[in-house]
Amino acid sequence: MNTKTLCLSILHFGEKSGYDIKKLCSDGYFKHFVEISLASIYPTLAKLEKEGLVTSRVEYQVGKPSRKIYALNEKGSENLNLQLQEPPSPDKHISEFLLLMKCCHLLAPERISKLIDERLAYYEKEISLIDECYDEFPEGELPAGSKFVLGYGHVVYKAVHDYVSSNRSMLETATGH
Amino acid sequence: MNTKTLCLSILHFGEKSGYDIKKLCSDGYFKHFVEISLASIYPTLAKLEKEGLVTSRVEYQVGKPSRKIYALNEKGSENLNLQLQEPPSPDKHISEFLLLMKCCHLLAPERISKLIDERLAYYEKEISLIDECYDEFPEGELPAGSKFVLGYGHVVYKAVHDYVSSNRSMLETATGH
DNA sequence: GTTCACATGTAACAGGTTACATGATTGG
DNA sequence: CCAATCATGTAACCTGTTACATGTGAAC
Lengths: 177, 177
Known about the structure:
- The structure is a homodimer of 177-residue chains.
- By secondary structure, chain A is mainly α.
- Chain A has seven helices and four strands; from the N terminus they run αβααββαβααα.
- Chain A has a three-stranded antiparallel beta sheet with strand order 1-3-2.
- Chains A and B meet through β4, α5 and α7 of A and β4, α5 and α7 of B.
- The structure holds a DNA duplex (28 and 28 nucleotides).
């Protein structure tokens, strides 16, 4: 995933600071399908401004550091539309947890149980975070795309939670060492 | 995910060439939770051999290029066990498809429909690939970890397939431009 | 007191990818 | 004939991360 396109598509939902973008990707609406760090956001936003795709203004705050707020302009909007015409590259999913489970015969049974407990807790947390996102919008006002994506995340976490809790014995009783 | 640990854990399931490892990660049993390219596998295997964690032998073939087959030795096995004691880092999931769906109001309805059709076909393909993996092993002989991980992938693809096919209208009828 | 959240930015480094280089055989 | 599969490996490049630098206010 191209960092520039990601920033443009997030800005398209409204003007934001680099810090805002990071929060959205780490905790908010974009959380479960993107990855980005602050150290790549700031230079990217600066580049986008230099290229004339976004504009920035500084918002002074009392007691807090100033925020540099970026907004998409027409050229940026056009550029985004162009980028979105390209076919999406395949999903990337990397899970050390699954690698560990695949190697369960090398793990102590107590460790497996602990890892699974933590995993289930993690799924539950993600589900409640998604539910919180729904609650932020009044009935029917959540955009279709956002609703679809939140629902997608929800069914994934629900399905794997069910699967892991019903099939954990498969791993916990494996004749390991 | 550490490339060295990944190679060691795959080799732990049996001796393999770099090419074999790539195939396993791209099409086989490790497919849906790891990412690795040949250009990082070969140098990693060479490094592992230099460090004395694996041994290699060359297998000559008629009509095909020779294969360099690597096997885990005791030191490598110990090293792997040590690595597996570390807590797994959080899953990484990146999906340009979901970003596109989130931005559905910027896409033509026909494009959305086409993207969804392709997506559903992709899920179906993944499910049948997983089923093929099951079939490779005779009844009951698939190791617990592998079975668990395959089942995990299966429920994910099944859940998202169901979700996308039942909720596609949410995006296709979105008042875009 | 100390850690966390807010807030932006740079520099050094690590990691992995794309493209290149090579070459035989098989299938369409 | 051309593309694909098998098979290994290197070099140049790019991108993104960790760590650093700086500073306030709130909460514990």
